[in-house]
Amino acid sequence: MTHSATVPAPSLPAAAYRLWRGADPIQKAAILIGLTLVSLAILAPLIAPFDPNSQSLIARLRPPLGFERAKAGFLLGTDELGRDVFSRSLYGLRLTLMLAGLGATLGLMIGGTLGLLAGIAGGRTEASIMAAVDTQIAVPFTLVALFLLAILGSSIEVIVLVLGLAGWEQYARIVRGEVKRLMNMPFIEAARAAGAGPLRIARHHLLPNIVSPLVVQFTLSLSNIVLLESTLSFLGLGVQPPTATLGSMVGIGRDYMPTAPWIVIAPAMMILLITFAVQILGDWLRDGADVRLRAR
Q1: Is the pLDDT of residue 223 over 70?
Q2: Which residue numbers delimit the ABC transmembrane type-1 domain (predicted)?
C-alpha cells in the first residue's frame, strides 16, 4: 500500500524571499522605502533627537544643516516655534501611518462584511446594502468627513472612525461582485451538496478566493486615507496641535513657504514616499496572493 506524501506549506520567510526574488527593481525599491518608513515610525522615540513639541523661540526658523544660520543638532531645521522639524516629521509619520492603518482596516472590516452579506443573502438585504453603497458614492466623502468632524470633534477615535468610513463602499462592491461570481462555481455547489452552511462556505471557500482583490483595494485605500488625513489636517480639522501629523505640518508650514520651505518639504516628501511605496507594494502583494499567478 502506498501513502500519499503531503507537501508542507512554505514558511513565511521562504515565501517572502521567493516574492523578493521575483520582484523587479522598482518593487524592490518600494519594499525598501516601505520598510524604512515603518522602521522610522516605530523607532521614532529612539531616533528623534528632541521632543517633537519642545519649543525654542531663539532657534525658530533655522534652516537645515549645511545652510547659513543653521543651528547645530537641528538636522532638517526648525519651524516657526523653534521645534525640530526632523523630530516632528518622525512622530508625524508614526501617527499618520497609525491612523491610515486603523482607518483602512476598519473600512475593510465594514465593507467586506457588508459585501459578503449582500452576496450571500441576496434579496432585500442585498438591495439595502447596495443602496447604502450608491449613497456613499454619490456624496463627496470629504464633505461628509468635514461635517462629522465639525459635529463630533477631532479626537483620535473620531478621526479613525471617519477614516474607516472612507472607501468602505469599494470593499463592499468588490466583495459582493466576487461572491456573486463564486456562488455559481461548481466547488460551491459541491460544498452545498455536502451540507456546508453559509458560514462555512464563506470562511473556507469564498474568503480565500477574494484575498487578491482585497489586498489591492486595501493598498489603494491606505494611500487614499493617508491623503485624506493629510487634507483634513491641512484644513485644521485633523489631529489638533501641538500633536504632529504629516498633513498638519504641511498645513501649518504653508504660510512660511517663501521664507522657510524646509518646514513643508520633509513631511510632504514622506507623504509622497508613503503613497508611492504603498501603491507599488499593492501590486507586489497581489501577485503573491493570487493563486492563479502562483500556479504559473
Answers
A1: yes
A2: 93-282
| The overall pTM is greater than 0.85 | no
CB 48 within 8 A of CB 87: yes
Residue labelled with grid coordinates 507623504: 271
Number of domains in the chain: 1
CATH number at residue 224: 1.10.3720.10
Band of pLDDT at residue 8, cut at 50, 70 and 90: very low
CB-CB neighbours of 64 under 10 Å:
17
In the chain, what percentage of residues exceed pLDDT 90?
A: 27
Count of residues for the chain?
296
Confidence at residue 15, expressed as pLDDT on a 0 to 100 scale: 58
The verdict on residue 34 lying in a domain is yes
pLDDT of 265: 92
The burial of 209, by beta-carbon neighbours within 10 Å (0-12 exposed, 13-18 middle, 19 or more buried), is given as middle
**Orientation angle between helical segments 85-121 and 168-182, nearest 10 degrees:** 40
Print the domain residue range for 173. Answer: 25-295
